[in-house]
Amino acid sequence: MFSSVSVFFRSATRCYARVRSRADRCLFADVAICLYPFMSKDTDTPRRTMMFATKKAIRRAELRQIVPLSDSTIYDLEQRGEFPRRFYLTARCVVWDLTEVEEWIHQRRRASEASLIQRAPLPDVRQRKARPVRQ
């Protein structure tokens, strides 16, 4: 089985360059993720080739759909080292690595479930000027 899978990977890496549509590239990446653990150790397919096929960079609009935080909050988290760093594709195009962003979301979920995230204190309603609290 291992030899047939490694033959598939050798031919698939050659075909990847010929795949034109984005949907077909995503399908190819999904197949590569599923079959990657079955590759034999003696295959001549470089590991970085298959890892490169599964990476995706997202722009700011896509990041806003995935992470419901404002731009300034994301920037502050990046400056503190608590959010994946952006990088430049061109002089004006800023992107984030999708796998890093998804991993950050999973880490935040685990931290939230373990009560490791410090929540903001509740406001002291007695200090309000409008709508004072009746006693």
Which SSEs are present, and which pair or pack?
Blueprint: H1 2-16, H2 22-35, H3 47-53, E1 57-58, H4 60-66, H5 71-80, E2 87-88, E3 94-97, H6 98-113
Antiparallel strand pairs: 1-3, 2-3
Helix pairs in contact: 1-2
What does this structure look like?
- There is one protein chain.
- The chain is 51% helix and 6% strand.
- It has 135 residues and is mainly alpha-helical.
- A three-stranded antiparallel β-sheet has the order 1-3-2.
- Mean pLDDT is 74; it is low at 1-9, 31-42 and 45-53.
- Unreliable parts: 1-9, 31-42, 45-53
Q: How many E-type strands? A: 3
Structural domain count: 2
Strand content: 5-15%
Query: Which structural class matches the secondary elements?
Result: mainly alpha
Helical residue percent? Answer: 40-55%
Main beta sheet, described? 3 strands, antiparallel
What's the N-to-C terminus distance? Answer: 77 Å
Radius of gyration: 23 Å
Choose one word for the global shape. elongated
Instruction: Count every helix, treating DSSP H or I runs of 4 or more residues as helices.
Output: 6
Give a brief description.
The chain is built from six helices and three strands. The chain is mainly alpha-helical.
